[in-house]
Design a protein that fits this description.
- By secondary structure, the protein is an alpha/beta fold.
- It has one domain: 3-Layer(aba) Sandwich (Rossmann fold), CATH 3.40.50.
- Helices cover 25% and strands 26% of the residues.
- The protein contains six helices and nine strands, in the order H-H-E-E-H-E-H-E-H-E-E-H-E-E-E.
- Strand 3, helix 4 and strand 4 form a beta-alpha-beta unit.
- The radius of gyration is 16 Å and the shape is globular.
- The termini are far apart.
């Protein structure tokens, strides 16, 4: 077993299982997808640590893979089914999208064209032919006409995400971290009977996605 495979097993055993992630599909995905491959080469030694890992290029806006524990808990809360169509917002290098590959179809969006190119190359390299990667702003979601069973935020939002919610199918759910107040919390938003409801899942923190930052108030 390689050093990375051992680190991956330790990540799942010590960070993910111990935080009440019991869905075997989530655990299997996190044991199978090589997180180190979605990280710049000079940071691969950090790939399995309990942290939000910066995957941006020097001089670019900071972009992250959210910490493994939070990744697992959000995926479990989303309850992705093999028949689902999934949208991953702010996919960075594509790791979270790769973990959702049990779904029928995944669209992953990224606002940074360089990262979008890396994500597209990586999901192709590992044979995830049900994943499509697009350039789009995080607040836009998928600017096409598609509607989704599940929308996952690969980071936090400090503002309402009404535009993203409108991209949910009837019965769909959006899962992510919301930092509109303190403490930040992971939440699930559901679309049912032409209305939206929300429920707090647990306290959580994650880097804020570009375009979903709070606009500073002007003070005289």
């Amino acid at each position: 077993m390689s050093a990375f495979a051992i680190a991956r097993q330790k990540m799942v055993d010590s960070q993910v299982r111990t935080n009440d992630v019991t869905d075997h599909r989530v655990l299997d995905a996190m044991l199978t997808v090589p997180r180190e491959a979605f990280v710049p080469e000079d940071r691969r030694a950090l790939a399995y640590l309990d942290l939000d890992l910066d995957v941006s290029e020097a001089g670019s806006a900071k972009r992250f893979l959210i910490k493994p524990m939070l990744t697992g808990k959000l995926l479990q809360a989303a309850e992705i089914l093999p028949t689902d169509h999934v949208l991953v917002v702010g996919c960075a290098t594509g790791y979270l999208a790769a973990l959702t590959a049990l779904a029928e179809r995944i669209v992953a969006t990224e606002c940074d064209p360089a990262l979008e190119g890396r994500a597209r190359g990586l999901v192709g390299k590992f044979g995830f032919d049900n994943i499509t990667v697009k350039v789009a702003g995080c607040a836009e979601g998928d600017p096409g006409d598609d509607r989704y069973d599940v929308i996952l935020l690969n980071g936090a939002s400090e503002v309402p995400v009404d535009g993203l919610c409108r991209q949910l199918k009837e019965g769909g759910r959006l899962v992510g971290v919301f930092a509109k107040t303190k403490p930040a919390r992971a939440m699930i938003i559901t679309h049912s009977h032409q209305d939206f409801g929300s429920r707090v899942l647990f306290d959580a923190s994650a880097p804020v996605l570009p375009g979903l930052e709070r606009v500073p108030e002007f003070v005289f």
